Amino acid sequence: MENNKIAVGLDIGTTKIVAMIGRKNEYDKIEVVGIGKAKSLGVKRGVVSNITQTIQSIQQAVDEAESVSGIKIEEVVVGIAGQHIRSLHHSDYITRNNADEVIEDSDIDDLVNQVHKLVMLPGEEIIHVLPQEFKVDSQADIKEPIGMYGGRLEANFHVVVGQVSSIRNIGRCVKSAGLGLNEITLEPLASASAVLSQEEKEAGVALIDIGGGTTDLAIFKDGIIRHTAVIPFGGNVITDDIKEGCSIIEKQAELLKIKFGSAWPGENKETEIVSIPGLRGREPKEITLKNLSKIIHARVQEIIEHVYLEIKNYGHETAKGKLIAGIVLTGGGSQLKHLRQLVEYITGMDARIGFPNEHLAGDSDETLSSPSYATAVGLLMEGLERGKEEALVEEVIEELVEENQEETIEETPIVEEKPKPKKKSFFEKFTEGLKDFLDNAE
């Protein structure tokens, strides 16, 4: 059994770049064997804006993870976010040649491939094609059509689209840092697999991942992804507002936000004051915590209202789309004091903070279960999941080869048939396409 399969998640964020190496232990939990992080200087609002700096930061994070774990990193699963991401709904169908045969993986692949051929706006490319419900002949609302009979297979899809140039830039950075690109995944999807439970996804839940440069949203209902969005604001705009509002430098503003910041202005009294050293011999500045939380509150409210608008657009207020499990907040920005209360107040939905510790092995380091690592843990899970699929196929092929050696009577055609367990993930085709694309671009 391939139990020591290693995978690497690389989260290229606006504030930090994290490389996380891990494997599954015997209880199917994730054991993180190495983690490295570097300050991210070349990324603005989730999009690479300085290739050279991003490559350096990736190398720094990877080197640190390698030296901690003693494992050489070759391939990574990378997350993508940024304001250029948009999602759309699309339905498509295929007519099967033979309605007397049951529907198989290959039929679903054909359908997904057909959606991949959709004509996008110039400069855009499909990142994910995620099937929602299927319809076989005239029977609707089928979750799993495999094994059914039918001539016409139809499905509704959630299609995630991004800018070709941004996707290429990420691929370029990873490649130039000397790494192979295993897969590109939408960051809110990665965070969701790290912090949401299956029950929440069934009941209906909105995951809000507040990062440094962007706030990502993923909405699930009936166990299926229904809506994704990337909002181009995050923790950094809050820091900028503090910087401007209090006339202090960024480093001080960030510290103030983390140490004393609160999203709820009511709880601070006028008398609570923080003194900040002035620059180079100038007088120290005195800032009241009430003012600080007023600044933070105004900006956070704007971000939440933005997200809430997306949740309403998805149809949360309809009876069918109601999100019973409410909201899960994760990402570095979710650690702001009283944020949960403010979110509940604005949206009227229940909220909790999501920690990525559910899938981690029991003896994992405390810091790993911080919401700031949700995306990295999710990307690592994605890589391990994929490794599992590949291992499965290899096993099947090995078994077949052995069988064939034992009895060499017309057994050959079966080799073609059997490696079915491998369901080519939707992202695999995309990643392969991207690899070719990058290779030709060189």
Please render the helix and strand layout as text.
Elements: E1 6-12, E2 16-24, E3 30-39, E4 43-44, E5 47-48, H1 51-69, E6 75-80, E7 86-95, H2 105-116, E8 124-136, E9 139-142, E10 152-163, H3 164-176, E11 180-186, H4 187-195, H5 198-203, E12 205-210, E13 215-221, E14 224-231, H6 235-246, H7 250-260, E15 273-276, E16 285-288, H8 289-314, E17 327-330, H9 339-347, E18 351-353, H10 374-406, H11 412-417, H12 426-441
Parallel strand pairs: 1-6, 6-11, 12-17, 17-18
Antiparallel strand pairs: 1-2, 2-3, 4-5, 7-10, 8-9, 8-10, 12-13, 13-14, 15-16
Provide an overview of this structure:
The strands form 5 sheets. Strands 3-2-1-6-11 form a 5-stranded mixed sheet. The model is unreliable at 408-423 (pLDDT under 50). The longest helix is centred in the last third of the chain and has 33 residues, at 374-406. The radius of gyration is 24 Å and the shape is globular. Among the domains are: 1-84 and 165-196 and 358-442, ATPase, nucleotide binding domain (Nucleotidyltransferase, domain 5); 235-297, ATPase, nucleotide binding domain (Nucleotidyltransferase, domain 5, 2-Layer Sandwich). By secondary structure, the chain is an alpha+beta fold. Helix content is 39%, strand content 27%. The protein starts with 5 loop residues before the first strand and ends with a helix. It is built from 12 helices and 18 strands.
